[in-house]
């Protein structure tokens, strides 16, 4: 393999690590960059590693800086020429000034003629790149790249193809000064930006720890001063004032600096020391300032306990704050701000109660929050901070109403919340906190619309939320809270894309979310909230893989999710939210084990899920979320019992599920999610009765299934999941009708099913689940035509089915379901050819079927169905 001139020489050949060129009008940037590069210490763990420039150095030294610009000359001095030749890299400070500089352009041109085109790096400080070529909306005068920067130049100085220089963008709203510097250094060291960024974050965290230690030392010193001077009133007052100032710093400024790090162990240590010191200092419960400070500390401790999953601990802190704030609002001279402080306690308590499953209790807290904020905003409509909290109060109340299944009421709250925050952002569009609130409002509406089944509208909301959070996270990459919100935005978008059948899009969104969560979880393993979110994304990736029939990979993801949730639920057994997610994890793993025919394992996981949910519902029978999940759990167990042949148990479990769903729908008949689940139970009951041979009883269940799905699919025609279920409902009825001899009725139902699936597959040809369903429907329609004596028509349908299955089976030879369906289609084609008198063709199809079934039976000897089918094929062949 050949090497370029640039690749063939190491850094030891050069005198300078880099040459900085810039316009004299950008001297401040040149000075800053020179100092930043020469003083940068390379992370120890990458020093000495081999690169194309030789072993990676400890320092980027020396750096040559061209100090003067000879604006009138187009010739370079001998000294500059020598420096360029002896420089490993050229760094160009890019701005409209440098773009117009003949000197800067000549230095770039000379350096590239040396064969080092790929060693030119750019620092953008002003203007727009490629503006002169019409690649942006800016004017040509704003071009920041010199001409030689924009093109490749050969050894003779001839300009050739356009160049794409590696650039750090120090402009406001882009990389920013620090990240731009790190990008340049990454280029100079031949390493990744992420490697250096991680080192910067570690260094920043260490500096915060030193700041924390210093703050605590000063606090202790203030305490000693107070004790020493206790008999001197004047000095004691001064000492106390200094100590209170230090407490203010720890409770506010230091908190704000530690919060983005996300290290709950560090935050906990600071809070405990401050609490001890504060108690030792002593304060009067009649002192409003002291009480407010104490309430602030309690709020921070409660927030930390909530993030750690200790709901009871957080609740105790919040209840103590509530007592303090109620006491303060009763004191003479109470202000609106004191009422505001009281209002902010209620949503904290609401969050805890919601996680504990006490939805009515949570609703009462959010309603109290809303009531106070409405009163305060009425008193002072111009107070934008109070307007923001009013928006939040509507949003929180909407969330709890949605959890209770009251979707219309929830929608009104979310809409009002969004309208308020949009009005605020018109006044102050650059407010990062309000932008974050805007993202939350989009998410709330998106969640509601997805629950209603309006997937396109939900997708629009989620996409808007993601756009906001991407911008915020890019501007503030060290803010762990916003990184978490960005992960959540990706997850929500993935959910709706999966529901629409866009599995590739969903996979990309989930992967983006997972990358953020892994980084956060590794940054602070003690943050159980992040661990919980990590478990959720593992579960969602498993769902996606399961929908693609990749059972083995899905099992791996589900197992990872279960392991995390078991650990969290064991650590905090009173956290009902985590208990609920633990039940999800068991249920998901049960689903994949059922698909793999590991029936005992599936039953065990489903039973574990059911036991958790029964315990939760016993605590609060009115919790609609827990009731709904209990209904699903009974249905899952019914599926396992059916697979095991225990039809009586399956019937009982489906009946238990049905009774719960009817109870839920009596509370809210408009809840489309519950209506859909009701339809699924009708289908499963129909399947059970059909397996028992009771077709007359099965037919009404399938009819009920069809009626519900027709209504839902008509209401939300863009919901591909419901369209798929509608197709299945037609198929189920068609199967009953063909056995009952109503061939025209069966043909009509299968044709309706086929039309839906053809439309879905046309939308997304890469969705294997839809392709598989389409194949089955072709086969079902072929069976009807064959029964009607239309052998040619039947052969055409079977052939269409075969073409799809052959493609699927070749994509995933390990998928036994597709292999079995392929064998079945060979049998159907063979039967038609035999009926048409083509015995040789029929025999060939039966032989191909026999080969597949023999392999399947060899791998799963206990599968009696496959054995029976193999025996049938052997009889056709006369074996």
How are the strands of the largest sheet arranged? Answer: 4-1-5-6-9
**Morphology:** globular
How far is the N terminus from the C terminus? Answer: 60 Å
Name the beta content range. under 5%
Poorly predicted regions: 1-8, 68-74, 225-243, 245-267
Radius of gyration: 34 Å
Biggest sheet details: 5 strands, parallel
| Helicity range | over 70%
Q: With helices defined by DSSP (H or I, 4 residues minimum), what is the helix count?
A: 33
What is the arithmetic mean of pLDDT? 83
Briefly summarize what is shown.
This protein is 72% helix and 4% strand.
Please describe what this structure looks like:
- The chain is mostly helical and 879 residues long.
- 72% of the residues lie in helices and 4% in strands.
- It is built from 33 helices and nine strands.
- The chain has a five-stranded parallel sheet with strand order 4-1-5-6-9, sandwiched between helices.
- Helix 21 runs antiparallel to helix 22 and helix 23 packs parallel to helix 25.
SSE blueprint:
Layout: E1 16-21, H1 27-38, E2 50-51, E3 54-55, E4 63-65, H2 78-85, E5 87-94, H3 96-99, H4 102-113, E6 120-124, E7 151-153, E8 159-162, E9 166-169, H5 176-189, H6 193-228, H7 233-258, H8 264-281, H9 288-308, H10 311-329, H11 336-355, H12 359-379, H13 384-403, H14 407-427, H15 432-452, H16 455-475, H17 480-499, H18 503-523, H19 528-547, H20 551-571, H21 576-595, H22 599-619, H23 624-643, H24 647-667, H25 672-691, H26 695-715, H27 720-739, H28 743-763, H29 768-787, H30 791-811, H31 816-835, H32 839-859, H33 864-877
Parallel strand pairs: 1-4, 1-5, 5-6, 6-9
Antiparallel strand pairs: 2-3, 7-8
Helix pairs in contact: 5-6, 6-7, 6-8, 7-8, 8-9, 9-10, 10-11, 11-12, 12-13, 13-14, 13-15, 14-15, 15-16, 15-17, 16-17, 17-18, 17-19, 18-19, 19-20, 19-21, 20-21, 21-22, 21-23, 22-23, 23-24, 23-25, 24-25, 25-26, 25-27, 26-27, 27-28, 27-29, 28-29, 29-30, 29-31, 30-31, 31-32, 32-33
């Amino acid at each position: 393999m050949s090497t370029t001139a640039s690749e063939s020489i190491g850094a030891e050949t050069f005198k300078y690590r880099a040459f900085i060129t810039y316009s004299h009008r950008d001297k401040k940037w040149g000075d800053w960059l020179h100092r930043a590069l020469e003083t940068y210490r390379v992370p120890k763990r990458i020093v000495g590693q081999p690169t194309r420039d030789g072993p990676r150095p400890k320092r980027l030294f020396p750096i040559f800086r061209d100090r003067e610009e000879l604006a009138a000359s187009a010739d370079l001095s001998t000294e500059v020429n020598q420096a360029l030749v002896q420089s490993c890299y050229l760094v160009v400070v890019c701005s409209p000034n440098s773009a117009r500089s003949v000197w800067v352009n000549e230095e770039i041109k000379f350096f590239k003629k040396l064969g080092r085109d790929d060693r030119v790096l750019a620092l953008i400080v002003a203007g727009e790149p490629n503006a002169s070529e019409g690649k942006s909306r800016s004017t040509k005068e704003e071009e920041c790249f010199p001409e030689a920067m924009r093109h490749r130049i050969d050894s003779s100085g001839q300009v050739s193809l356009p160049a794409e220089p590696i650039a750090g963008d120090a402009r406001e709203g882009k990389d920013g000064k620090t990240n731009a510097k790190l990008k340049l250094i990454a280029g100079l060291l031949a390493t990744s930006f992420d490697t250096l960024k991680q080192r910067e974050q570690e260094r920043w965290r260490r500096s915060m720890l030193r700041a924390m230690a210093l703050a605590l030392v000063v606090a202790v010193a203030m305490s000693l001063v107070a004790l020493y001077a206790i008999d001197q009133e004047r000095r004691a007052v001064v000492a106390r004032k200094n100590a209170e100032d230090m407490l203010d710093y720890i409770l506010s400024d230091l908190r704000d600096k530690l919060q983005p790090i996300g290290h709950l162990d560090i935050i906990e240590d600071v809070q405990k020391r401050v609490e001890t010191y504060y108690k030792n200092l002593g304060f009067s419960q009649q002192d409003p300032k002291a009480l407010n400070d104490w309430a602030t500390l309690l709020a921070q401790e409660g927030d930390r306990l909530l993030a750690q999953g200790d709901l009871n601990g957080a609740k105790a802190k919040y209840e103590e704050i509530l007592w303090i704030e109620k006491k303060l609002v009763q004191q003479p001279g109470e202000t609106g701000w004191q009422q505001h402080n009281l209002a902010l306690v209620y949503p904290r308590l609401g969050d805890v109660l919601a996680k504990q499953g006490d939805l009515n209790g949570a609703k009462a807290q959010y309603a109290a929050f809303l009531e106070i904020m409405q009163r305060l905003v009425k008193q002072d409509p111009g107070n934008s901070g109070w307007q923001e909290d009013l928006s939040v109060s509507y949003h929180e109340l909407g969330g709890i109403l949605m959890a209770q299944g009251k979707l219309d009421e929830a929608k009104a709250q979310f809409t009002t919340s969004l309208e308020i925050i949009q009005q605020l952002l018109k006044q102050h569009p650059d407010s990062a906190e309000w932008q974050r609130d805007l993202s939350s409002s989009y998410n709330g509406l998106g969640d509601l619309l997805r629950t209603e089944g309006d997937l396109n509208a939900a997708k629009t909301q989620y996409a808007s939320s993601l756009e906001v959070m991407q911008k915020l996270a890019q501007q503030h990459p060290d803010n762990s809270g916003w990184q978490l919100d960005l992960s959540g935005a990706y997850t929500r978008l993935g959910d709706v894309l999966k529901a629409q059948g866009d599995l590739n899009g969903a996979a990309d969104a989930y992967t983006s979310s997972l990358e953020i969560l892994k980084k956060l979880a590794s940054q602070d393993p003690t943050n159980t909230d992040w661990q919980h979110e990590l478990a959720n994304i593992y579960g969602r990736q498993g769902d996606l893989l399961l929908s693609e029939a990749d059972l083995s990979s899905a099992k791996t993801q589900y197992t990872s999710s279960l392991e995390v949730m078991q650990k969290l639920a064991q650590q905090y057994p009173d956290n009902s939210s985590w208990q609920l997610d633990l039940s999800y994890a068991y249920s998901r793993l049960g689903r994949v084990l059922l698909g793999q025919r590991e029936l005992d394992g599936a039953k065990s996981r489903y039973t574990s899920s059911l036991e958790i949910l029964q315990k939760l519902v016993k605590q609060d029978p009115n919790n609609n979320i827990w009731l709904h999940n209990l209904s699903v759990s009974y249905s899952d167990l019914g599926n396992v019992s059916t697979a095991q042949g225990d039809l009586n148990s399956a019937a009982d479990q489906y009946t238990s599920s049905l009774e719960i769903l009817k109870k839920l729908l009596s509370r809210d008949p408009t809840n489309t999610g519950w209506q859909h689940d009701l339809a699924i139970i009708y289908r499963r009951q129909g399947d059970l009765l059909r397996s028992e041979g009771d077709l007359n009883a099965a037919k009404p269940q399938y009819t009920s299934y069809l009626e519900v799905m027709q209504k839902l699919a008509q209401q939300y025609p863009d919901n591909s999941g419901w369209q798929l279920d509608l197709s299945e409902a037609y198929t189920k009825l068609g199967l009953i009708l063909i056995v009952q001899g109503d061939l025209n009725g069966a043909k009509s139902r299968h044709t309706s099913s086929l039309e839906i699936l053809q439309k879905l597959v046309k939308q997304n040809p890469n969705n294997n689940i839809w392709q598989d369903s389409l194949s089955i429907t072709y086969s079902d329609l072929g069976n009807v035509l064959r029964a009607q004596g239309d052998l040619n028509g039947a052969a055409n349908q079977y052939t269409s089915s075969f073409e799809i299955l052959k493609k699927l089976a070749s994509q995933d030879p390990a998928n036994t379901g597709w292999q079995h369906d392929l064998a079945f289609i060979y049998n159907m084609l063979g039967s038609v050819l035999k009926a048409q008198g083509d015995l040789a063709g029929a025999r060939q199809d039966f032989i191909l079927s026999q080969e597949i079934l023999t392999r399947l039976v060899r791998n799963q000897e206990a599968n009696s169905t496959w054995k029976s089918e193999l025996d049938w094929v052997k009889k056709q062949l006369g074996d």
